[in-house]
Amino acid sequence: MYQAARTVAASSSSRLHSPVAWSRKSVQEGYYDLEAGETERTPLLYVRDNGRYRAKSLHRANDPNRVHPVALGLMVALLVFLLIGVVIGVYLLLLTVQRPWPVSHPFFLVERPAWWQYPVALEAATLDRLAVTNVIVLHTNSEDCLDQERCVRYLQNTERSCWAARRDHIPYNFLIGGDGVTYEARGWKSQHGFVDLPGRNTTLVVGMIGNFTDRQPAEVQYAELKAFITESIRRLSLSPQYRLHGAVDATRPSRDGTIALYSQLERWPHWNGFVARDQP
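RESULT FIELD:
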């Protein structure tokens, strides 16, 4: 009896100190001893291995391909910083583009399809934009246009008369009206149509709508001309080292040189004198 009591005591002591107590019967039936294992945080599964039983954690192993949330956040932050750096770099690059003057007057453009919606499409030699280094300014020697309706009518009438006379389009690249708006004629991509003006492949010809022999254009026209030059540089359609010219009749250069239109242009940056043309 004493020996039996010692056996029972040893069995109870082993049961109290073991995290999971089990018996042969429990192994065979495949369940835990809940009385001993109820305080375990991580349940163990006992599996048979070469005739012996070993404990196996029910927690799954970490996936080696899984991206840690902290690492993912760092990568997103790095991409954001790189994007900000690119934006700042582009902005600083744009600041290096030379501007002839501070422009407070906004640039207004009416494109050719807005005022000419007829079947005859523009057909003109392509302008080499990389070589555009000159701007020639002249007046149209016509009536003023002080609103968009009259300016559009002037462009339409000039286009019709040029086409009827020589089967050609309006010769200017752009015209600026008294309403302070730039009107696209041949644009930045086509050569001007004046046969008596030089540099057809290196020049933009801008017409100031009106007769400015004895009087100057309105300030808004001068302001729009500045805005046009700045916009042309921004579009890489005009070299920052451009040259600004006026046009005079070759038979009377001294008289045309006193045209009121040029009294202000001669004081502008990049002014480079007059070019002669065969006809006024």
